[in-house]
Amino acid sequence: MMSLGESIRIKTRRDIEAMRVAGVHVAEILLELRDLARPGIATIELDEHARRAIEKRGIQSSFLGYGPHGLPPYPAVLCVSVNEEIVHGIPGRRELKEGDVLSLDFGISWEGYHGDSAFTMPVGSISADVAKLIETTRQSLDLAIEKVVPGHRLSDIGHAVQEKVEHDGFSVVRQFVGHGIGRMMHEPPQIPNYGPPGRGPRLKPGMVFAIEPMVTAGGPDVRMLDDEWTAVTADGSLAAHFEHTILVTEEQPLVLTRVPGSH
Ligand code: MF3
Ligand code: CO
Predict the structure, then answer these.
(1) How far is the CA of 94 from the centre of ligand 2 (A)?
(2) Which of 87, 146, 161, 198, CA to CA, is 20 to 30 A from 245?
(3) Hey, where are the domains in the chain?
(4) What pTM was estimated for this model as a whole?
(5) 190 and 157 Cβ atoms separated by less than 8 Å
């Protein structure tokens, strides 16, 4: 297991150039998927689109075949988590319907460097309460990104997420965390979405983090489905998930997985 103390790799200029390319691929493909998502489309069709995009661009999926600590290899290139599903939903024949809360999580590598990003969107129209869940989660990521500058410490990131989410009356999922990213999709450190500020290593230019708040409308507890991948809320409440891959620079954080129009 990774821990807060393990060393965080500083990326070289060459690493960063490759990670910028990887991030743009992720961002562009997620925008294509956002445009395709509508009532009546099966979640596997979104995965199939993502597979074709990967093929066309000559890049590699970070997710397909991924299998940490004894889990069955992940069978798709995309995670599609609907409603009470929080993360790692496996695409299948299920069709999206009006009012669904859809989370898409996607990662690829280019020349061995990974990019990882996720967002949640409504399918058709949703209630104001559900829109608020999605908006709070998006804003909690943006507030966390503001902390990704030299001088701040690692735990300032999770603290920013927790403060926003709980202020707005929602819960932060504890069982999954953000992570360092580079030549591996998951590198040290783990980045919880909660906790006190001012702890852990100081952030330095060249560090790259995938920050990914997972938020529920009910309690924070998680249940796993029999497929061993899909994480759902224990109380059946709705969930949202946003993620970006972010470079620490001397100045502003650089969101590698953002292009115009992105979350
Ligand atoms: N963003 C997710 C994560 O960092 C994506 C992993 S999906 C998997 O855990 F299939 F690769 F596991
Ligand atoms: Co991730």
Answers:
(1) 24
(2) 198
(3) 13-255
(4) 0.97
(5) no
